Amino acid sequence: MKKSGRDRRPYVKPVTRIELPQINVKARVILLVVFLAIGVVALITGMMSMLSTEPGWQQIEVNPQERNCSGDFVFYYDFTDSDSATAEHKQLNNLYSQLTTSAYQIFTADEQISDVGNVYTLNAHVNEIVTVDPVLYQALELLVSSGSRYPFLAPVNVEYNRVFIAENDDEAARYDPIKSPQLQPYIRQTAAYAADPDMVSLELMGNNQARLNVAQEYLDYGRENEIETYFDFDWMKNAFIVDYMAQQLQSQGFTKGYLASYDGFTRNLDSRGVEYGVNVFHLQGVDLYQPAQLIYDTPMSIVNLRSYAMSDLDRWHYYSYASGETLTIFLDPADGMSKSSIDTLTCYSESMGCAQILMEAAPVFIADAFSEERLLDMAGENVYSVWCRGTVVRHTDPKDRIALVSDGGLVYTIEQALAS
């Protein structure tokens, strides 16, 4: 395998220690955040055993033989009704290990993998027809049909990544496009190229064949500015990966559990009527509250977008200054600037995967102004949303699955948003 020099991310294991720079978290919320850093907490009725081969709920680990993406996810499964928890656990462990390895190899833009047509392959063969993995091709189809331009911001993301790995505020400010006027012309010009389909686009030919088209003008600009990657899923990647792994697990009959990524993408596979809950967060100034929960008992895809860090792994998507300002990886294709229209937006669906939901939710979250109207339109497509305004928890769910939770802080109320 050939590895490029662009990936400065180490291979890491999941963590449960939570840090919220510049955010004062209420004591009761801290207890809940252990699993909520990845956007989900399970309210399980019945016994919860963590012994590796005993019936009950277990966290599924991987066999770390090859580089994989397991450090971004947790996977919990219920062996309560299993005839042989030990045998089923072993089978699931092997399958999950295989899936996290395959997902890493397919979606990486930083590593050439033998016999795998991946994101790296597209960038290494610009303006050439290449055969990509069927899983990647399916993801590209969704991107093309949605018209999403976020993955084409890959060169701009590289600049923001310099901020996220900064050791101090002075270093971060030097690379922060918002704080460094000298960087803004490059960011805006690169974003303009990325937003223009005539400059860069994906072309799909069927039979898993694709081409990353880059105009000569943009290629010349790229050479002048040492651009190596024109397309990368980047922060969106885990939405596609969790869908891929969920689909494979379901196809092999493993449906009594849930997968969740640290950055807010969750697939619950459980159709037994077991009750689960997802905490709804709200950032008021520097205080983080948990005023409500989404309670559900069906298979569900959940996307949580937030403008603040919640775990150690979030350092790859956020930088918090001592002043309290936070820079995020959520970039607007219109100008390449980091922005969030609201502090927290949770969208969910029983019929769509996380990647499909993200295509709908991202333009609402990454915007100068928040649009409830668009969320109401999404509800008509069976994608429901919950968010907070002041001390009001608003949602678009006709099933009223949002329940208030008292955390000893502010008093919240619930309102369902309705079309005018």
As laid out across the biggest beta sheet, the strand order is: 3-4-9-10-13-16-17-18-20
- Major sheet: size, sense and barrel closure? 9 strands, mixed
- Between the first and last Cα atoms, what is the distance in angstroms? 56 Å
Low-confidence stretches: 1-52
Structural class of the helices, strands and pairings? alpha+beta
- The average pLDDT is 88
The radius of gyration computed from the alpha-carbon positions, rounded to a whole number of angstroms, is 21 Å
Helicity, in percent?
Answer: 25-40%
Would you report the number of β strands?
Answer: 20
Give a quick summary of the entry.
This protein is an alpha+beta fold and 420 residues long. The protein has helices at residues 27-36, 85-107, 119-124, 134-146, 154-164, 169-175, 184-195, 216-224, 237-251, 354-365, 372-379; strands at residues 2-3, 24-25, 57-59, 73-78, 111-112, 129-131, 200-206, 209-214, 257-261, 265-268, 276-284, 287-296, 300-306, 318-320, 326-328, 344-349, 384-389, 392-395, 402-404, 413-416.
